[in-house]
Amino acid sequence: MGQTAVEFHAACLVPRARRFPPGCRQGHFGSPHGRVLPMKICFVVDKFPSLSETFVLDQIAGCLERGMEVGVVCNETSFGKDRNIDDPRWQALPGKVVCWWGGLGRYRPLLRKWSGRFWDKLSTAIDIAHARKLQGADVIVAHFGNNGMRVARAIKRGRISAPLVTIFHGRDVGEPLHDNTLARYKIVFEKGVLQLPVNGFFRDALIEVGASPEQVVVHHMGVRPNEIDYQWRSWEQATLSFISVCRLTEKKGIEYALRALAGLPRRDWVYSVIGGGELLEELKAIATNLGIADRVSFLGSRPHSEVKQRLRDAHVFLLPSVGARDGDLEGIPVSLMEAMAAGLTVVSTYHSGIPELIDDHKTGFLVPERDVAALTGKLAWIAENPRPCEEMALAARKKIEAEFNSDLLNQHFVEIAMQLGETRSLA
């Protein structure tokens, strides 16, 4: 699977661990005059806050909880546009939320369309002209490879000196892998100090194109199990309830879920699909053509509170992810982690980093990508064997608590960031 963030911290940072300047507490640095100052960490993202990137929000929350001064530099803000993520914490970040391009940010989509093949040079020039917004950070964390590349170019031009950590999630690795252009991140490897792919598959891919193995560390995203009630519900004497929560894009594989359910021998089942996306109408048509539209509900985007309730009411979580035709890949879907923590039986595929989360027939079920017959077979077995599934659901909950617990992961992340920031302060 590759080195994890925990293993990296143990192997590389322990000899220097806890070397905080006198009088400082974890999460803070001392000034030359003995004052205690919070460590400044800047997150670079595309849109903030984003409902589809709750892992970013959770990581920011983890840094805030540990005394860091957090700021965000983004392309656009979405405050007031989605009540599901209008948390006062995001508007009141101590380091502020600012647009990288300032007032020019609103013209970014138009400039990208207008500039064509010159977009890379134009956007880089504007990035560098506005890079001073990142200058005050002790550590910069770029989510997704494209943002890491933007920061790395500014570092190369001498506009930024803080250590750069880049977190790779999915599309940012999958699409360039598909196009054979993953080596585009060479400047990130050279100017950044640490790459944190979310799974071992991505780690191997980055190393293959030139990243130093010592600087590429698997750091999983996670969920907070203490905020998710575990509840097992048997379907032995009930209608079997399937559910998916995702954006309706090709890589989520919902088409294959529909086709597998259409072949399920047991007929007393229902399927709820939560989420919007470009494939919504196409998937509705597939359900109709398969003759199962009366048992499938496409619910669109729903408030998080409703999603949690519908998860509590369901039995089986379906996410048969696939590699999209444009190369887009999953990292390790947080929705699967949430379902496992909540006590659902989970069914997914041997895709990207998902096998790092789900052990087939131990903590859930896996099938090959796009294999409708295999998926139907697993669903049929689940339908007839609720009691063994209860044992697997409990094992899945324990795995989330031990390995995909964001409280623990955020602690390790903060410790790594602290060491990077401390190294800079002592330089």
TrEMBL record:
One MF annotation (Gene Ontology) recorded for this entry: glycosyltransferase activity
By sequence similarity, the record places it as follows:
Belongs to the glycosyltransferase group 1 family. Glycosyltransferase 4 subfamily.
Xref: InterPro entries? Glyco_trans_1, Glyco_trans_4-like_N
Q: What is this protein called?
A: Glycosyltransferase
Task: State whether keyword Zinc applies.
Answer: no
Q: What is the lineage of its organism?
A: Bacteria, Pseudomonadati, Pseudomonadota, Alphaproteobacteria, Hyphomicrobiales
Any idea of its EC number?
A: 2.4.-.-
Query: Glycosyl transferase family domain: which residues?
Result: 242-398
Cite the Pfam families for this sequence: Glyco_transf_4, Glycos_transf_1
Sorted alphabetically, which keywords does the UniProt record give? Glycosyltransferase, Transferase
Glycosyltransferase among keywords: yes
Residue span(s) of domain Glycosyltransferase subfamily 4-like N-terminal: 53-225
